[in-house]
Design brief:
With 84 residues, the chain is an alpha+beta fold. Helices cover 36% and strands 12% of the residues. The two termini are 23 Å apart.
Length: 84
Amino acid sequence: MSKVVKCREVGVDCDFEARGETEQEVLQKCAEHAKNDHGMNEIPPELAAKVKSAIHDELRRLEDACGFADIGATVNATGPTPHC
Ligand SMILES: [Zn+2]
Protein backbone atom coordinates (compact mmCIF):
# COMPACT_ATOMS: atom_id res chain seq x y z
CA MET A 1 0.00 0.00 0.00
CA SER A 2 1.27 3.45 -0.86
CA LYS A 3 1.92 6.16 1.65
CA VAL A 4 0.41 9.53 1.01
CA VAL A 5 0.20 12.98 2.53
CA LYS A 6 -1.50 16.11 1.28
CA CYS A 7 -0.39 19.68 1.74
CA ARG A 8 -3.83 20.38 3.13
CA GLU A 9 -3.24 17.86 5.89
CA VAL A 10 -0.37 19.88 7.26
CA GLY A 11 -2.30 23.11 7.18
CA VAL A 12 -1.31 24.41 3.75
CA ASP A 13 -4.06 25.55 1.40
CA CYS A 14 -2.86 23.49 -1.55
CA ASP A 15 -4.18 20.40 -3.32
CA PHE A 16 -0.82 18.75 -3.82
CA GLU A 17 -0.44 15.24 -2.55
CA ALA A 18 2.78 13.33 -2.28
CA ARG A 19 2.77 9.57 -2.47
CA GLY A 20 5.39 6.90 -2.39
CA GLU A 21 6.13 3.39 -1.25
CA THR A 22 7.95 4.56 1.83
CA GLU A 23 7.75 7.44 4.25
CA GLN A 24 11.15 8.51 3.02
CA GLU A 25 9.94 8.72 -0.56
CA VAL A 26 6.93 10.78 0.45
CA LEU A 27 9.09 13.16 2.47
CA GLN A 28 11.39 13.50 -0.50
CA LYS A 29 8.51 14.45 -2.78
CA CYS A 30 7.20 16.89 -0.21
CA ALA A 31 10.58 18.54 -0.05
CA GLU A 32 10.68 18.94 -3.83
CA HIS A 33 7.16 20.26 -3.94
CA ALA A 34 7.76 22.70 -1.11
CA LYS A 35 10.77 23.99 -2.95
CA ASN A 36 9.17 24.27 -6.38
CA ASP A 37 5.71 25.43 -5.44
CA HIS A 38 6.07 27.07 -2.08
CA GLY A 39 9.49 28.59 -2.53
CA MET A 40 10.86 26.82 0.52
CA ASN A 41 14.48 25.93 0.05
CA GLU A 42 14.39 23.78 3.10
CA ILE A 43 11.62 22.28 5.15
CA PRO A 44 11.96 23.42 8.75
CA PRO A 45 12.30 20.53 11.22
CA GLU A 46 8.95 21.28 12.86
CA LEU A 47 7.18 21.14 9.50
CA ALA A 48 9.01 17.97 8.56
CA ALA A 49 7.80 16.42 11.81
CA LYS A 50 4.27 17.56 11.05
CA VAL A 51 4.42 16.08 7.57
CA LYS A 52 5.86 12.88 8.89
CA SER A 53 3.08 12.43 11.41
CA ALA A 54 0.47 13.23 8.76
CA ILE A 55 1.69 10.56 6.35
CA HIS A 56 -0.78 7.73 6.16
CA ASP A 57 -1.50 4.69 4.07
CA GLU A 58 -3.37 5.43 0.92
CA LEU A 59 -6.92 4.28 1.17
CA ARG A 60 -9.44 3.45 -1.46
CA ARG A 61 -10.47 6.14 -3.92
CA LEU A 62 -13.71 6.74 -2.09
CA GLU A 63 -11.95 8.49 0.74
CA ASP A 64 -10.76 11.27 -1.52
CA ALA A 65 -14.25 12.68 -1.57
CA CYS A 66 -14.67 12.88 2.16
CA GLY A 67 -11.21 13.06 3.67
CA PHE A 68 -10.92 9.88 5.63
CA ALA A 69 -13.14 6.89 6.10
CA ASP A 70 -13.73 5.80 9.65
CA ILE A 71 -12.76 2.25 8.81
CA GLY A 72 -9.10 1.51 8.43
CA ALA A 73 -7.93 5.09 8.57
CA THR A 74 -4.58 5.51 10.24
CA VAL A 75 -4.89 9.15 11.10
CA ASN A 76 -2.41 10.45 13.57
CA ALA A 77 -4.16 12.06 16.50
CA THR A 78 -2.02 15.16 16.24
CA GLY A 79 -3.06 15.81 12.65
CA PRO A 80 -5.88 18.01 11.44
CA THR A 81 -9.30 16.73 12.39
CA PRO A 82 -10.78 14.89 9.43
CA HIS A 83 -14.41 15.44 8.64
CA CYS A 84 -16.77 14.93 5.73
ZN1 LIG B 1 1.64 22.45 -1.59
